[in-house]
Backbone:
């Protein structure tokens, strides 16, 4: 809570009296009984009430009607098509701005290829800027350029499309937080044009150093990162796409004693996103990417968490030279 200052319309004499009575913040002042403040600070009751009224008026959030908030959301939000026909059909037209989307899957299931394809489509077809945060050091400009060229775009426009994709290499979570702070400060400038899509590929390498720690520092940093992303996504109508690894958990089936010997090798597998229980509820939407079989290029994309799509809905895509199609 903000500390009391002269700039808030409080006289120096009253401010000094409040500090002597251990009233330092706006919350302390508002919670204290007005008659006690008047007596302790030797100030008229009218002045105490006027200061309270000014603080509430200037520092409180203004209430708005729910319908007004909904109309503002509709007018400011936009759909960002991925350029993948079956995926856009699953998403009812594309990704919705103002959200944090997670692409989750086992290693090698095509999450980065999906990010390359989305980046190429947004930059080339939609002519919007993309900020690609690379934490693994495997961003391939050549691969993205190849995807752009397969969209039958004139040669002179391919380079311009590639320039709309700005890549930042990040090595640890502290560097990512500094980057997000910098991005937020830049977005606050009037002349700044915000990127339409920000992709973080991927989060687990930044969190791994904290997994062996007994403290909750890693969770605190993840919470800070996600909070900043959601604030920027909401205020500036940006689409955040974060990549997460998944793990396969294998649990023995529960069986009775008589059938235990016959069923001792029976197992069930469950693919779950990494980063712990906190992260399960952090993104607005989670898409699980998985191989249909070990050799085919086809991938199954399934909705496992969403605020507006049916959970369990899925589509099939294919990884090719043209990207994910």
Residues:
């Amino acid at each position: 809570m903000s500390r009391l200052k002269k700039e808030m319309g409080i006289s120096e004499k009253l401010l000094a009296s409040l500090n002597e009575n251990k009233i330092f913040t706006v919350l302390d002042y508002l919670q204290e009984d007005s008659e006690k403040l008047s007596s302790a600070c030797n100030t008229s009751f009218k002045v105490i009430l006027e200061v309270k009224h000014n603080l509430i008026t200037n520092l409180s959030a203004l209430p708005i009607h729910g319908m007004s908030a909904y109309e503002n959301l509709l007018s400011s939000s936009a759909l960002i098509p991925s350029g993948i026909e079956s995926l856009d059909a699953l998403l009812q037209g594309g990704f919705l701005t103002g959200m944090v989307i997670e692409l989750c899957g086992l290693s090698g299931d095509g999450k980065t290829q999906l990010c390359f394809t989305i980046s190429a489509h947004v930059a080339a077809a939609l002519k919007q800027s993309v900020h690609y945060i690379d934490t693994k050091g495997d961003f391939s400009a050549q691969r993205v350029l190849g995807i752009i060229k397969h969209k039958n775009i004139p040669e002179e426009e391919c380079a311009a499309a590639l320039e709309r994709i700005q890549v930042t290499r990040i090595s640890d979570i502290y560097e990512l937080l500094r980057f997000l702070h910098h991005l937020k400060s830049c977005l606050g400038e009037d002349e700044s044009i915000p990127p339409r899509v920000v992709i973080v590929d991927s989060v687990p390498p930044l969190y791994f150093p904290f997994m062996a720690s007994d403290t909750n520092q890693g969770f605190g940093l993840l919470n800070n990162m996600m909070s900043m992303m959601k604030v920027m996504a909401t205020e500036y109508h940006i689409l955040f796409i974060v990549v997460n690894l998944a793990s396969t958990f294998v649990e023995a089936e529960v069986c009775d004693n008589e059938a235990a010997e016959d069923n001792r090798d029976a197992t069930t597998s469950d693919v779950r996103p990494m980063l712990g229980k906190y992260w399960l509820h952090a993104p607005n939407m989670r898409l699980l990417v998985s191989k249909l079989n070990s050799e085919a290029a086809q991938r199954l994309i399934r909705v496992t968490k969403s605020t507006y799509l049916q959970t369990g809905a899925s589509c099939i895509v294919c990884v090719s030279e043209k990207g994910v199609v």
